[in-house]
Design brief:
Low-confidence stretches: 468-472, 493-497
Largest sheet: 5 strands, antiparallel
Distance between the termini: 124 Å
Order of helices and strands: HHHHEHHHEEEEEEEEHEEHHHHEHHHH
Number of helices: 16
Helix content: 25-40%
Mean pLDDT: 81
Radius of gyration: 34 Å
Shape: globular
C-alpha cells in the first residue's frame, strides 16, 4: 500500500485536545518525530556537544564556577567502616587510605582517590560520562584508569543501532561506542587511543562490559533507553555561549569609547589640538592654539569664544545589558539546579539564601547517590583483590560479606551555629533525629569518634589542671569513671601533724 498523509485535524480535537500538538500559526509547528536518545545525539552530535562544553569551561569563568559549586556539594565523602569490631574498623580505614594513594590508585600515578573521583564527577558534567577502567593484571594491577568520553567510539566497521546476530537468537548493536543486547544491557565497549597529535583516533580495542564502569548522567533527558550519559550543560550551552560572547563585545565597546574621551567643539577653522601634518611641504607646520596633554597632570583649557569642551561619557554596560546578562546566566544555572543567590547574594536576604541553599542541597541527593555507588563498586572490587593478595587480613571466620562500610557525605556546616545547633539538639531530644545523623549531615565526622576524642581532651585538660586556670570544658553528659583522673595521695610534709 502507498503511504497516506494524515488528514486535517477535526475541529472537535482542536477545541478539546492538547494545545501542544495543535498548530495555530503563532509559533513553530509541533514536532512529530521521536527517536532514541542515541540517535538524537549521534556520534557526530556528541563530538560537537563535547567540544562546546569543554570550550565553555576552558574560557568562561561562570561555567567553571557552576561546575565547582556542584562538585563541592556532591563529591566530598569519607570512608567509614561500620563493623562492630572497632579495632578492625581502624585497621580497614588505614588499608583503604593506603590503597587510595595516587601511586596505587591511579594507573597514571597522578590522582589520589579523592581527586580522581572528583574529576570523574566533573567529566560527567562536562562530557556526559567517563569510563573507569579496572586494571586487573600486569603492571599497575589494582589501579584504575580514566577513559574520557570521546575515546569511547563505535568500531570503524559498525554504525549506530545496526543490529547483528549475537548467538542463541539474540542480537546486539553498537550505540555510540557501547555494545548492547536487545534488552539494552552493556556487553562491551570500544575504546580508542589518541595519536601523537591528539586529534586522530588509532588502536581501537574492545573490552567486555564488566571491565569498566561507565559513570555518566542518565537523567539529563529522562529517557530509559539512554545508553550514553549526556551532559546537563546541553540545555544551557546556548545561554552560556551568549553570555560569554556578549560580555566580550561589551568590553570591546567600552574600550573603544575610552579612546575618545575628550570632545572639543569650536566655530573657528583651526584644529582643536596638537595636530601635525596640516601644512604643505614647503610651509611651516600649522598647529592650533590648544595643546592638550593629559599625561602632564591637571589640564587647564583656555578656550576662545565659540569653543566648547566636554568629556564623552559612556553608559556601557547599560542597565539593560546587565539585566540581560543576569537573566541569561540565571537561566543557565538552572541546568545544575544552582540558585542565583549562590552566584550573587546582593538581592537576597539571609533567610532567602539559606532557603536556596537547602533546596540546592536536596537537589544534589541523586548525584550523591550516583557518586556513592561508584565508590562502593570500587571498594568491593579493590578489597576483594586485597584479600586475595594478602594485603587485607580479615578476622577469623570472616569473609568480604562481613565487612561493612559506608561512604559518608561530609555534608554542610552550620550557617548560624548559635541557632542551628540548638535546633539540632531539640530535634534529637524530640526523637526527630539522632547524634549520628546530625554529625554526618553537618560534616562533623562520626559521633562515636567525636565522643572518644572529647573524652581524651577533657581527661588531658583535667590532668593539666585546666579547671584551676579558669572555666573547665563542660559536657552535657557525665564522663565514665575511668576517664576521670584520680588524685594521687601525697606524703605528709615534714612538720605536719
Amino acid at each position: 500500500m502507498g503511504r497516506t498523509e494524515p488528514g486535517p485535524v477535526p475541529e472537535s480535537a482542536k477545541k478539546h485536545g492538547y494545545d501542544a500538538i495543535t498548530s495555530k500559526g503563532r509559533r513553530a509547528a509541533p514536532i512529530s518525530a521521536t527517536k532514541a536518545e542515541g540517535k538524537q545525539l549521534d556520534p557526530y552530535g556528541r563530538q560537537k556537544l563535547t567540544a562546546t562544553t569543554r570550550d565553555l569551561v576552558r574560557n568562561f569563568s561562570v561555567a567553571k564556577w557552576m561546575i565547582a559549586r556542584h562538585l563541592d556539594y556532591t563529591s566530598f565523602f569519607s570512608f567509614t567502616p561500620t563493623t562492630k569490631d572497632k579495632g578492625f574498623n581502624a585497621y580497614l580505614t588505614s588499608v583503604v587510605a593506603d590503597l587510595g594513594r595516587a601511586e596505587r590508585f591511579d594507573a597514571a600515578g597522578r590522582h589520589r582517590l579523592e581527586s580522581f573521583f572528583r574529576l570523574c564527577e566533573a567529566r560527567r558534567i562536562i562530557d556526559g560520562d567517563v569510563g573507569v577502567l579496572k586494571v586487573s593484571s600486569g603492571p599497575g594491577t589494582g589501579s584504575v584508569m580514566a577513559v574520557e568520553a570521546d575515546r569511547i567510539r563505535n568500531p570503524s566497521d559498525s554504525r549506530n543501532f545496526v543490529k547483528k546476530p549475537q548467538g542463541s537468537g539474540s542480537r546486539s548493536s553498537w550505540v555510540n561506542g557501547v555494545k548492547v543486547n536487545d534488552s539494552g544491557r552493556t556487553l562491551a565497549y570500544s575504546i580508542w587511543n589518541r595519536d601523537q597529535g591528539g586529534s586522530n583516533w588509532v588502536d581501537p580495542r574492545d573490552i567486555r562490559g564488566g571491565r569498566m564502569w561507565l559513570y555518566g548522567f542518565f537523567d539529563s533527558s529522562y529517557r530509559f533507553d539512554q545508553v550514553r550519559g549526556i551532559s546537563p550543560l546541553a540545555s544551557a550551552a546556548n545561554q552560556l555561549k551568549d553570555a560569554m560572547e556578549s560580555s566580550e563585545f561589551a568590553i570591546l565597546k567600552a574600550k573603544s569609547q575610552a579612546f575618545f574621551s575628550l570632545v572639543l567643539s569650536r566655530d573657528a577653522e583651526e584644529s582643536a589640538g596638537d595636530i601635525t601634518g596640516g601644512a604643505a611641504a614647503d610651509q611651516p607646520e600649522d598647529k592650533s592654539g590648544i595643546d592638550v596633554d593629559f599625561g602632564a597632570g591637571p589640564v587647564l583649557l583656555d578656550l576662545l569664544p565659540g569653543e566648547d569642551a566636554k568629556f564623552l561619557q559612556s553608559n556601557e554596560p547599560s542597565d539593560q545589558f546587565k539585566n540581560y546578562m543576569n537573566y541569561t546566566l540565571e537561566a543557565a544555572m538552572k541546568a545544575l539546579n544552582i540558585s542565583p543567590s549562590m552566584y550573587s547574594s546582593e538581592k537576597s536576604t539571609w533567610h532567602g539564601s539559606r532557603s536556596d541553599q537547602l533546596a540546592y542541597d536536596r537537589g544534589c541527593l541523586a548525584a550523591r547517590e550516583d557518586h556513592r555507588n561508584l565508590r562502593d563498586k570500587w571498594t568491593v572490587w579493590r578489597l576483594t583483590l586485597a584479600i586475595l593478595d594478602g594485603e587485607l587480613d580479615l578476622p577469623s571466620g570472616w569473609t568480604l560479606e562481613d565487612v561493612r562500610w559506608e561512604w559518608v557525605h561530609r555534608g554542610t556546616p552550620w550557617w548560624r551555629p548559635d541557632q542551628e545547633i540548638k535546633g539540632d539538639i531539640d530535634a534529637i531530644g524530640a526523637g526527630f533525629s539522632n547524634p549520628m545523623r546530625v554529625c554526618r549531615e553537618r560534616g562533623q565526622g562520626e559521633f562515636e569518634q567525636n565522643i572518644d576524642a572529647t573524652i581524651r581532651a577533657v581527661k588531658y585538660a583535667r590532668e593539666r589542671g585546666l579547671e584551676e586556670l579558669g572555666e573547665p570544658i563542660r559536657l552535657n553528659f557525665e564522663l565514665p569513671p575511668e576517664a576521670t583522673p584520680q588524685a594521687t595521695p601525697q606524703p605528709d610534709e615534714p612538720g605536719e601533724e
